[in-house]
Structure formats: C-alpha cells, structure tokens
Amino acid sequence: MNLDLREYSVRTDLAVESKAIAEAEHGGPVPGLHEDIDELDGIKVTRLDVQDEAASQKIGRVKGHYITFEVPGLRSQDTELQEKVSSVFAKEFSGFMKKLGIQSNAKVLIVGLGNWNVTPDSLGPLVVENVMVTRHFFELTPDQVSPGYRDVSAIAPGVLGLTGIESSDVVQGIVDRTKPDLIIAIDALASRSLERVNTTIQVADIGIHPGSGIGNKRRGLTKEILGVPCIAIGVPTVCYASTIVNNVFDMMTAHFNDESGGDQAQSKQIMGLLTDLNEGERLGLVKEVLEPLGHDLIVTPKEIDEFIEDIANIIATGLNRALHEAVDRDNVAAYTH
C-alpha cells in the first residue's frame, strides 16, 4: 500500500525547530541562514537570521530575524533563574529593537493574544496584566512623567470565538486612533518537542497570526497589514499528540540501541520498517492513524497553571525593563545591591 504523506508535516512555530528539520532533510546547513548561539548559566540564546527567500522556503519561516531563549531549568520554578532569564530577555529585546531601528521614544502598543479562559492560551492576556502601561500619563499629565519612561499601552482583544471580531480588526482600530510606532504581540505557540513547552521564548520581527499554534491561521498582525512594525513574542504551550508519539519512536530506537550496545540490526528487528522512515514519513503514518479517530489531541503539561504564570511574569518583567530605561536602572541597582 502506498500512502501519500505529502500533506503531513511536523507542526512547529519555532524557527530553531524548522531549521533543524530542514537541515535533516537537506543533509547539512541550509544556505541563506545565519545562526549565532550563546549559552550561559542554563540559558541558551539562538539568534537566527533568515536572509533570503530560498532559505525561507526551505525552512518554512518568513524571512526575518528570530531570537530563541531555551531554558529547560524553568521547569524547576527557580526564582533566581527566572530573574536571570528576565534580565537576559530584556537585554536581548533592547538590542533587537535597536537592530530594527526603533527609537527610545517610540510609542509602543502591547497586544496580548489568546483566550484568558483557556490556560494554555492565556499567555498574552497574562502578560498584558503585568506590563507597565504609561500612555494615560503621557496623554493627561505629560509634564509629570519622569525621564526614562516611554509611551506604552496594552490590550488583550480576546479571541474570535468570544468577541465575534478578528483580533487583527480590533488592533487595527486601536492603531488608527492611537498611532503607535511599534506593536509587540504575544501569543501561545506549538512545538514539536514537549521538552520545549513552557521553557522556550521566541522573538521575531515578522509579526504573528492568531491561532497559528493550533493550525488555525487567520488575518495576522504584521507590518504589511497594520502599517506599523510588529514584533512577535511566542511561547510554545502545547504539543500535538501525533508529534509526541513520533518522538517516542526516536526515544525507543535510542533506548534499544543503548541496550544492545549499539547493535542497530537488533533495534531494527524490534522497530521494524519504522527505522527506515524519515521523521516526516513517520509522522504521516501516526497522523494517518490518529486523525480519523479524532485522537490527534493538543497536549499540554499538567502543571500548565504554574508554568504559564511564571513565563508570563518573565516576559512582562523583561518588557518593562527593555521598554523603560528607568525601570531597568532600578532593577539593575536592586539586583547588584
């Protein structure tokens, strides 16, 4: 029996995962990608530039700049580590804005996408709750605003199912009235690896499409649509069941290889033809079984309530420090004393 698996692919919103998949298929580095990696105290920062359309097509990511923070230790809920991540995030985000030509006095609109009633999708609204908004001070008492603060507003527009209005339309109306110089959109994403769920933050200058994490792409928040530069911040909070099952095959193969002392023939005897399939083909078979039964579930860790609050606080604190120089100075002084 010949199965057409071309419609199936590993679903991920993370550029670093898309790059890894493309390199595995390409058999080596993909031309047109520039990667720079730093790692310190359990925080891995990957800066990835997709430089041309050919590279964009190969990895399935829009041409642009991506920063990924990977911190597996966040699962331990270490408050000191969270503070370090927030500090690193603030520094990288400040540099990211400068790279995009965003001035220190630019007006910023923060948009928290997602459904506050659904925990894995509540990242955006939770960040909005914790960011420092100052636009009303600039509008009402501009002479009393201390140096080191900028004009920041925030909105959590809800989701189409709650409001009946596309998030992009809500934001467009706000942009037309308030005239921000930059939009920062925060949303939940999907990962191909459960290990990256709630431990990874991605920043990109390409904007964002609400619902993309669950394959429900609609009108996006992008510079082309809104007329304003849009930086996207995303955290993978979910993973597809088919992706997990697919990963289990790799883990089982590695386990049998270890148990047999590296005897791949023995592993193949146990795993059969699955060892001859590449990742995309294997995922296609898994989806071929699960989707007709309605079992390709969207999965999130059982500790999602604690994880989502922690990562939202990290992002909100990092944004406050990156957007307001006065806040960053105060935090640095407190941290060093």
TrEMBL record:
From the UniProt record, list the reaction(s) this protein catalyses: Endopeptidase action with P4 Glu or Asp, P1 preferably Glu > Asp, P1' hydrophobic and P2' Ala
Q: Which Pfam families match?
A: Peptidase_A25 (PF03418)
Post-translational changes noted in the entry: Autoproteolytically processed. The inactive tetrameric zymogen termed p46 autoprocesses to a smaller form termed p41, which is active only during spore germination.
Q: Which Gene3D superfamilies match?
A: HybD-like (3.40.50.1450)
The domain of life is Bacteria
* Subunit record text: Homotetramer.
Q: Name one GO molecular function term.
A: metalloendopeptidase activity
Cite the entry's keywords alphabetically: Hydrolase, Protease, Zymogen
Briefly state the protein's biological role: Initiates the rapid degradation of small, acid-soluble proteins during spore germination.
What EC number is given for this enzyme? Answer: 3.4.24.78
Q: Which InterPro entries match?
A: Pept_HybD-like_dom_sf (IPR023430), Peptidase_A25 (IPR005080)
Q: Which family does it belong to?
A: Belongs to the peptidase A25 family.
Removed propeptide positions: 1-13
Protein name (database record): Germination protease
Q: Does the keyword Protease apply?
A: yes
